[in-house]
Here is the input.
Amino acid sequence: MTMIEAPTAAHGRPVDPYRLGRADGLATGHGDAGPASERVIIAFGFWIFLLSDIVMFSAFFAAHAVLQTATDNGPTGQELFDPSKVAIETGCLLVSSFTCGLSAVATNARNLFWTQAALLATGLLGLAFLSLEAHEFYGMIASGAGPDRSAFLSSFFALVGLHGAHVSIGLLWLGTMMAQLFVKGFGPILYRLVCFNLFWHVLDIIWVAIFTVVYLIGEGR
Here is the structure.
């Protein structure tokens, strides 16, 4: 079995691969490979923003979990939710996550046509998701099951509506970037595309949690 040997300096002593870049051994924060790339720094900063967003969603999830049975003799999730429609919504958003990933692959290859095509597919699927969600909200409110009917419905509209608002903002962001790509190419917005991919995938993960906690568990109550 072969072993990977540590690199050796000219004087024959092994070099510590984790040493931080100064001859006197004092840390500089850069290391032998230099500072982190701009892409890594921007992605890390955007992850911090996303984590703060996840904390906010966690509070809404907690409120809904507590209020899920507080129907005040009004309609329950079992009476209101249509599993087939929710499944179509979920399918649209999950497929949009796949097409968003394809846009990242095309971006890395600097292929403008396929990047735009994948982003367009992502936007259309996101718009289909929002249309189905708006139709669901309209039907519930028209039948008297609006957010003012019970604490359960207040928490439902707050949580699902908050996610829908994020999807709407994401679509506006997506449309803006597609226009900028068409006019200016990759240069000015390359890292915004990276951040958008992170944002959209997190929204998909949050929706899977909503689908499980709100619809599957709620429909079974």
Notes: The mean pLDDT is 82. The CA atoms of residues 80 and 155 lie 14 Å apart. The helical segments are 38-67, 77-80, 83-108, 112-142, 151-184, 190-219.
